[in-house]
């Protein structure tokens, strides 16, 4: 139960999202990168933003319309120096969803990256519902490396309001291919019951959790821990660089997931190291958050998690109210949990300043406002609009929790240090 309740929170964040140095060393060492591709069909995204009724549906329709035609030019990404280790191109859908290709056995899947959960799951060939038929399904009979497990598995997606989306299935074990690496004996979940309301339209098959083992359902060892245990990577770290639309010169490079190393050419200045305040999510204490250097305090010694599975920045509702007031956003701007804002105002809006480990991390309005054609969307939301925040999970008070999703991660180079249980942040070198 413990891990289940935690994962419920993690997945609710995912679903809400409108729903993952040493240069000389890196060349020699086992550093693996996955490149992220970009998709830019904003008119479709906007249409979906305007027609959906819940944040959950909004998120998944974002996914469904993300016409993620993977670019074949992805090999031009900046990760060429580790090409001997294999590079995969992944997809950035609308700056709100970062996913990539993996293999299980020899079967291919497109998985969403999620740092707020710790299980890997894909649909099972045993599921013959139409919703499953829309996705790649794992067929164990076709795999020579399959090992049966059979333990039952269940995971819940909390949605806004009372909707509960439950996925269920069972555990299996096979070889996982990711970033050119082959993880042996990776236990994952074959999903036999996939809710249509949600997955009819998702453009990814499954989810890859990059959180810690203590939040993994059924005590399954997550892929990162297996990569480390099997010595497939040199250092127990991974890094995430999420490229954003708008500043890119190379449209094919949506970012990278670097497994087992770090790449100082991708950030400027020094990394700021922050110890995790709690292990499970990638959670740490933020000293303060303000909007504009003279703005009201939005956070003082608050807790935050880094979540690539969440698109926006999720703030406690009181902080969100203050943010909206400062941005001139009213209830009239609310569209299904997403706030619109006049694009013309973007240039006049203050910076968001997060003080973390005595260092200021600055997000200009151009980063926290998402532009889709002539419509702009605020990068801030809260977990339960007009209702209660998630206040307590597992006895831990989350009423003050900030979820720093893709809107935040997109501006920084972030190293996730599994070994030292810390994160390291630096401004990203613009792509
Ligand atoms: C996806 O994009 C490609 C290239 O931009 C286009 O040819 C194709 O028709 C699009 N598919 C859908 C379903 O919109
Ligand atoms: C991902 O896999 C799909 C299906 O096999 C393939 O068409 C696509 O090119 C791949 N995309 C990337 C970015 O690797
Ligand atoms: C799974 O693979 C086996 C062996 O190739 C095949 O006979 C079976 O029809 C497949 N099952 C599904 C549901 O595709
Ligand atoms: C799922 O998509 C199919 C078309 O691809 C549609 O016929 C069906 O009604 C959809 N189901 C739901 C619950 O949206
Ligand atoms: C199934 O996997 C779980 C998690 O890795 C493990 O604890 C359990 O022993 C496995 N069961 C079998 C029958 O292999
Ligand atoms: C925004 O600015 C453009 C050109 O500067 C103008 O045409 C448009 O009407 C403005 N939009 C609003 C909502 O003020
Ligand atoms: C992406 O770039 C295009 C063209 O540069 C622009 O029209 C669009 O508004 C941008 N969207 C986002 C989300 O930045």
Describe this structure in words.
There is one protein chain. The chain is α+β, with helices and mostly antiparallel strands. It folds into 2 domains: 229 residues, Cathepsin D, subunit A, domain 1 (Beta Barrel); 164 residues, Cathepsin D, subunit A, domain 1 (Beta Barrel), CATH 2.40.70.10. 17% of the residues lie in helices and 38% in strands. The strands form 4 sheets. Strands 13, 14, 15, 16, 19, 20, 23 and 26 form an 8-stranded mixed sheet that branches. Strands 3-4-9-5-8-7 form a 6-stranded mixed barrel. A hairpin with a 2-residue loop joins strand 7 and strand 8. Helix 3 runs antiparallel to helix 4. The protein is globular, with a radius of gyration of 20 Å. The N and C termini lie far apart (42 Å). The relative contact order is 0.18. The structure holds 2-acetamido-2-deoxy-beta-D-glucopyranose (7 copies). The site of one 2-acetamido-2-deoxy-beta-D-glucopyranose has 10 residues, from strand 2 and strand 4.
């Amino acid at each position: 139960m413990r891990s289940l309740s935690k994962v419920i929170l993690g997945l609710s964040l995912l679903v809400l999202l409108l729903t993952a140095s040493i240069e000389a060393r890196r060349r020699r060492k086992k550093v693996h990168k996955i490149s992220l591709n970009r998709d830019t069909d904003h008119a479709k995204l906007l249409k979906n933003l305007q027609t959906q009724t819940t944040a959950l549906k909004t998120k998944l329709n974002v996914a469904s319309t993300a016409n993620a035609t993977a670019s074949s030019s992805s090999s031009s990404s900046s990760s060429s120096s580790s090409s001997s280790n294999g590079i995969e191109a992944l997809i950035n859908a609308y700056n709100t969803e970062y996913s990539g290709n993996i293999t299980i056995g020899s079967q291919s899947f497109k998985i969403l990256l999620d740092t707020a959960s710790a299980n890997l799951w894909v649909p099972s060939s045993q599921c013959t519902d139409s919703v499953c038929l829309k996705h790649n399904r794992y067929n164990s009979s076709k795999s020579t490396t399959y090992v049966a497990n059979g333990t039952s598995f269940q995971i819940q997606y909390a949605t806004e309001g009372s909707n509960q989306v439950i996925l269920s299935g069972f555990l299996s074990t096979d070889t996982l291919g990711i970033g050119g690496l082959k993880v042996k004996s990776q236990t994952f979940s074959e999903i036999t019951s996939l809710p249509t309301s949600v997955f009819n339209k998702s453009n990814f098959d499954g989810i890859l959790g990059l959180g810690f083992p203590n939040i993994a359902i059924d005590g399954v060892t997550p892929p990162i821990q297996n990569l480390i245990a099997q010595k497939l990577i040199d250092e127990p770290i991974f890094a995430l660089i999420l490229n954003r639309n708008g500043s890119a010169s190379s449209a094919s490079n949506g970012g990278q997931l670097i497994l087992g190393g770090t790449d100082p050419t991708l950030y400027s200045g020094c990394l700021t190291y922050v110890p995790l305040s709690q292990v499970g999510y990638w959670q740490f204490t933020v000293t303060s958050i303000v909007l504009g250097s003279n703005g009201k305090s939005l956070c003082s010694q608050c807790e935050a998690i880094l979540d690539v599975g969440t698109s926006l920045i999720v703030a406690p509702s009181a902080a969100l109210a203050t943010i909206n007031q400062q941005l001139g956003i009213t209830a009239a701007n609310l569209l299904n949990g997403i706030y619109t804002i006049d694009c013309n105002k973007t240039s006049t809006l203050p910076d968001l300043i997060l003080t973390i480990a005595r260092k200021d991390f600055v997000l200009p309005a151009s980063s926290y406002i998402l532009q889709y054609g002539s419509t702009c969307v605020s990068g801030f939301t809260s977990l339960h609009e007009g209702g209660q925040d998630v206040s307590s999970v597992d006895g831990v008070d989350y009423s003050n929790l900030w979820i720093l999703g893709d809107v935040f991660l997109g501006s920084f180079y972030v190293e996730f240090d599994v070994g030292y249980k810390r994160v390291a942040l630096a401004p990203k070198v613009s792509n």
